[in-house]
């Protein structure tokens, strides 16, 4: 039961990384895209609604792994507060810059862009802190040692920067896949190209560079996650597949295949989280006093069984609702802002 619940949380994390990552990344890419309306149209189906996956993860951790939830909400309450602050500020600023004509939208736009960086930064920091092995559960250690030092490390900050780069790459991919540009060919036919190739290429290279920085920082900090990931067949496979996917990004632009671009995005996100999980399993969190393993943190089997039934029933309502949301926003009228060259 515990393994099945962990698998559900992993799938929800992949979905949140793909949908929310593209959402937050679009806010960062907005710095480099001249027409803001393109961003708004691209993220319209999933903005804010994608947080359902984060809520699902939080609920599953609270009910299914109460010891893990207690450790995270206590030791990492400061970076998690920054995550929540970024989510709230981003959502409100995105709304008010459209529906508050009495004020200049520049203030809301700046808040939207900055908060689009704040949340992924501290999400990455929090995830890295669970694997860093420096969580301190001793209440007598002092405020800094208990609540700041565990995540104020090179590995945690490098992971936070990598998460920002990954989400920005996802936002650029979303924008390129959503907005095609019609171009005339020599024989009079019309070819549909994928725009923003330079933005996608730059953000992808930045993601690769910061990913290497994460591995280097993990080695410097002697993080136990790194040797565990490199000794795991699943971890090595995830690293290999994510590396192979790099070559398919320029191919998607050459072949004008937006579906291939989206597929590469999803596979790479799944592999990155797969490598992280492989380096952790069976531990859910590492502290100075030892590791909190999956079965140590799990709730009683009866609770897990009931929780899984609740998830199955809930998904019967969630998945059709999200599918309908995307279908409604992607009908013909929603594409009126797409430029045709």
Explain this structure to me?
The chain is mainly alpha-helical. The chain has a single domain (2-178, 192-335), classed as Formate dehydrogenase/DMSO reductase domain (Formate dehydrogenase/DMSO reductase fold), CATH 1.20.1630.10. Helix content is 72%, strand content 5%. The chain has helices spanning 2-29, 36-43, 51-64, 66-75, 77-99, 105-131, 143-147, 154-178, 197-220, 225-230, 233-244, 248-255, 258-280, 294-297, 301-329, and strands spanning 181-184, 190-193, 283-287, 290-293. A hairpin with a 2-residue loop joins strand 3 (283-287) and strand 4. The chain is globular and about 55 Å long. The N and C termini lie far apart (54 Å).
What is shown here, in short?
The protein has 341 residues and is mostly helical.
Strand content: under 5%
Helix content: over 70%
SSE run: HHHHHHHHEEHHHHHEEHH
Distance between the termini: 54 Å
Unreliable stretches? 181-191, 333-341
Which features does this protein show?
341 residues, mainly alpha, Formate dehydrogenase/DMSO reductase fold, two-stranded antiparallel sheet, 15 helices, 5% strand, disordered C terminus
List the helices and strands and how they pair.
Elements: H1 2-29, H2 36-43, H3 51-64, H4 66-75, H5 77-99, H6 105-131, H7 143-147, H8 154-178, E1 181-184, E2 190-193, H9 197-220, H10 225-230, H11 233-244, H12 248-255, H13 258-280, E3 283-287, E4 290-293, H14 294-297, H15 301-329
Antiparallel strand pairs: 1-2, 3-4
